[in-house]
Structure formats: C-alpha cells, structure tokens
Amino acid sequence: MSTLHTVNKSPFERSALQACLGHAQASDSVLLIEDAVMAALSGNAFAAKLADAGQSVKLFVLGPDLKARGLDPAKVASGITVIDYDGFVDLAAENSTIHSWL
Fold it and tell me: Could you give one GO CC term from the UniProt record (predicted)?
C-alpha cells in the first residue's frame, strides 16, 4: 500500500517538506505543489535532501504551479518528474492513501 504525499508550503518558510521526507516510505510518491515547487529547482538548499529521498520514493512537481510562480520547468532537478493536473489525478488513483503535509 503506497501513499501519495503532497506538500504545498515553501520549505524556506515551513518544515512540512522535511517532515514529509522523514516519514515517506519506499514506493511512496511525493508531489510538490503550490509554494513547495520551489524546492524542486536544482541548486537550492533542498536539492541534496530530495536527491537522497529520490533513492527510495518517487518525486514529482506540478508543472502548472511552477508556471504560476514564473519558474522554468527546465530548471527542475534531475530525478523529479514534472507532471500536469492529469498526472496528479493519475498519482491519486495509483496510491491507496493521500497524505497532505501542511
């Protein structure tokens, strides 16, 4: 039974992403949405933590939220998949549980 973890707060303001990564299990998925998308960009303070997490969990970022913040999807760190709203729905359907980190 896998879990989809959604994180919507900027990791530069809240510790939701850190808590999420500490609880996510192998085969879980982590989706960065809203202001949390800033963590997905390569070269920031969370890049190494996400790269480590990506060894056991699947990492995704919502493309429309990147665009809404003027962020370039081409600058997303390797190992993080950019998805659209249909991909979000697919992730929700593929996982038995959804946990939102606020």
Answer: sulfurtransferase complex
